[in-house]
């Protein structure tokens, strides 16, 4: 198995230093989304005391020309702290802080999709939107070969791996469980995991969904770094007769969760059906090109060119869980978002269509609200 050189370093030696006291100081790691819209970056600074709220964490800056976010002649970008977590790597009292990125003129960077999402979520807050996102991913060796696959050839066909148990069915459970524990320690609202490389975050209300999923992704990449492997969110990392990787998004409003809420679920699905092209464009970072490799109508996916919905149908664009159909209220699942989607873009789009009643492919500017 191809693992990184750093993972082979003596971790016991590292622990000797990690146990040293900090003399009352605190390490704060600033985390942000880079110019790709998919990758995360981080850097750390020392604060004189433990921050008790996000307001206690000062703004910072970084070189945007090194992250595809600015030109070298005007490269300073601002890091604006928005959400704070405990640090599962350096432990208490140290912190992880998710940041928005602003350009030199204090306008949002192109990949700062949180900025508009927050505006939309503030507008629809009375509907109390809840989200839960199922993040699928693929583990690769440092050479890009899928972790656990034979060096030559392919593993056995799909079937035994889903929620599997056993050394011939599960690969990398140590990584899956380490990530789970790290998220729980950090305060990420992780609610479950599957050993075949998926975790779930939620329920989260409003902007919290994007904040917690992005931090869970950061923690996943850091855990994989320790183990010497790579986690990719590519929606179809291996061509052929293999499932792709999605980020199925479960969604409800307060009306949908109440008795008789099924009619509100059906109304929302009807709105989504009339705006399929718009959603496909925002459900991956490349305007639907990534998802076109995954949404083929095969391997538990819908066809990218067609909208469909059904009860308990994992081959549909929208799935209504069977229990929801029986109860007459609850939530529904949008199965179209790709694994590498931006959760801010996905949740914002759903609110624009189902609550703000936008139509067509253009979006409204709510700057004056």
From TrEMBL:
Domain GS catalytic per the UniProt entry, residue ranges: 113-369
GO cellular component: cytoplasm
Domain GS beta-grasp positions: 26-106
Primary site of residence: cytoplasm
Record's subcellular location: Cytoplasm
EC class of the enzyme, as a word: ligase
Family label: Belongs to the glutamine synthetase family.
Name of this protein: Glutamine synthetase
Organism expressing this protein natively: Taeniopygia guttata (Zebra finch)
